[in-house]
Amino acid sequence: MQLMPAIKHPPVIDISHWIDVPDFNALEPKPWLVITKATQGTWLLDAKYGEYAEEIPAAGIRLGAYHFMEPGDEIAQADWFCEIILQVGLLGNEILGCDMEVPGISLAEIKSFLDRVQLRTGIRPIIYSSQLMLEALYPNKICPEWLKSETLWIAEYPSSPD
Question: Based on the number of CB atoms within 10 Å of its own CB, is 107 exposed (0-12), middle (13-18) or buried (19 or more)?
Answer without folding.
Answer: middle
